[in-house]
Amino acid sequence: MIPERIKAFLLPISILALLEIWARAVDLKSDSLAPPSAIAAALVKAFQDGSMLTATRDTLISAFTGLSIGGAVGLAFGIALGIFHIFDRLMEVTIESIRPIPSIALLPIALIALGFGYRMEITIVAFACVWPILILTRAAVGGIEPRLIEVSRALRLSPADRVRKIIIPAALPRIFLAFRLAAGIALIVAVTVEIAINPIGLGAAIMTAQQALRPDLMLAYLFWIGLIGYLLNTALMLAQRHLFGRAALVGDSA
Amino acid sequence: MNRSVLYWRAASFAVAAGFIGLWQFIADQRLVSPVFLPGPDRAWASLVRGFASGDLLDKLLGTLEHMAYGWFVASIAGIALGAMIGSSRTMRSYVAPSLEFLRPLPVSAVIPVAIAMFGLTQTMALFVIAFGAIWPMLLATIHGFAAVEPRLYEVARSLHMSRLAVIFKIALPSASPDILAGMRLSVTVALILSVVCEILAGLDGLGHWVLLSARSFRSADLFAGVMLLGVIGYLTALAMSLVEKRLLKWRSSGH
Asked: A205: closest CA among A216, A194, A215?
């Protein structure tokens, strides 16, 4: 029997090997494909001249700034809506009519209001990140054991203390899950905005590589973007498991 | 419907109307330049005008068409591939880890590759939308097939059912909640990617419409397009959850 760990690598390795052999056999000249060895060389070269790092930095700055802003707004509203039921019911129609707007549809609005650059991208990322955090925080706060709230009332905690000492700790595992999902969304939206229109970051770099007819560089960027997405997701998943134990992963299907 | 629920709903609509009033006020007082922010009256007028002239309807249908084709292809391929991979333990252990690696990939990153392969064409959009929308369904189907109660498979074996019969009579119904949830997620992905492809390739659709409106600073048309995209997002999500509820009725009534 082959161990599971090795089985996982067999498929990608054999695909890469076949691609390499085929590309060499037919002496591939293409605008969209390149042999894996050329992709690896392009990746190394892009790292050496620093262009890969600059692009990665730009994308991550936009994604994380947007995530922090959107996350803070979503968290504040989520907690408020989860605590004050009246507020939740009053805001329902407003929230449900803004939420379904695809974040990328705001791109032209952000473009004319803010122009190209970080600010426009951060705004769109923030808008996209508000919703998952708001919805999941609201559910998490609403689902807190009612007796904990009673305790806080019996202790006569001030509202600020009640949020800080009871509500946030009790809802934290699910808020972290929301944060993890939103981090994935932030990266996706940032790259999408860059590919569609914004001339900074990894998305713009991969578009430039395509327009320059450099399939090796384009695929190197594609691989690198995928790797960042995977590493981000894995790191946050590990952090979640480490901080909150396996229980936190229950009900995590997304 | 309960009476108090109705009152709350009315109050909630009143709050939303209040926000629209505030928006109108800000636009009227020119607190924000009208170049960026048209009042709701101008946006609404533009929406009505767009539909009256048939322009906006064409764009709307264009976007819906891109979404529908891509989503349809992705549904068929996603469920078929998912069934193939999910129903075999060997396939799962070879293929699933690679899929897990690809899952967090920002799908829009394949757009340049698709452009290099197909140019700025409808085929490119179809490929990108289908590729993006396939993931939620593929992974949900694999998960659903892998989570089928093992005893059901034992029953199938003792009844000497063929593999196809097992898939259609046992695995698919049992995995249907996962698959439907995946299909619902995919609709959203398909909408977003349709807009991106229209923006990039200039294909007929709302994405192209909002970009052109922004370029020529017709902010009322721009807002009309964005509102329409929100409506699409809302209605498709609503339709999917109604379908889901209807198809999964047997589950809740069984208990």
From this structure: A194
